[in-house]
Specification:
Elements (H helix, E strand, L loop, with lengths): L2 H18 L3 E5 L7 H12 L7 E5 L8 H13 L12 H8 L25 E2 L10 E2 L3
Helix pairs in contact: 1-2, 2-3
Length: 142
């Protein structure tokens, strides 16, 4: 199977999956590390998005580390109306609680500290406080 047929098959699969349910959300994190074949598939999906199917593909990436080809493809998608670019800022603790666990009770700030190894990471901004199984979420920014 040639790569173009594979890309069309992948787009058709996403469309079928979305139509079979109530839509489809595909979340791709750290796309700046993607291999060339995956970037080519993303480029195909930007140029030929699945039609008549509620498919949303969310791409998270670091701007400065993104391959020029993907950046160009996403820019063309913005210009063509198939890509919506969002640049969310950091969330404070209260915004994270409201968005991710609206029914959770706030925890006191002293018990809401990030694990030492996570303070330098930005890809995992939320953690459960120790001893609180799912009762609250704690968020921090670097």
């Amino acid at each position: 199977m040639d790569r173009f047929a594979l890309q069309r098959a992948a787009a058709a699969f996403l469309a079928r999956t979305a139509r079979a349910g109530d839509g489809l959300v595909v979340a791709l994190d750290d796309v700046h590390w993607a291999d060339p074949a995956s970037l080519e598939l993303l480029d195909h999906l930007v140029r030929h998005p699945p039609r008549r199917a509620p498919v949303v593909i969310v791409v998270a990436r670091r701007e400065r580390q993104t391959a020029p080809r993907l950046a160009a493809s996403l820019t063309r998608g913005v210009e063509g109306g198939t890509v919506l670019r969002l640049e969310p800022g950091p969330l404070d603790r209260d915004a994270c609680l409201a968005g991710l666990a609206p029914a959770a009770r706030p925890v006191s700030p002293p018990s809401c500290t990030p694990p030492a190894r996570a303070t330098r990471r930005t890809s995992s901004p939320c953690s459960r406080p120790a001893g609180r199984r799912g009762s609250a979420l704690c968020c921090w920014t670097n």
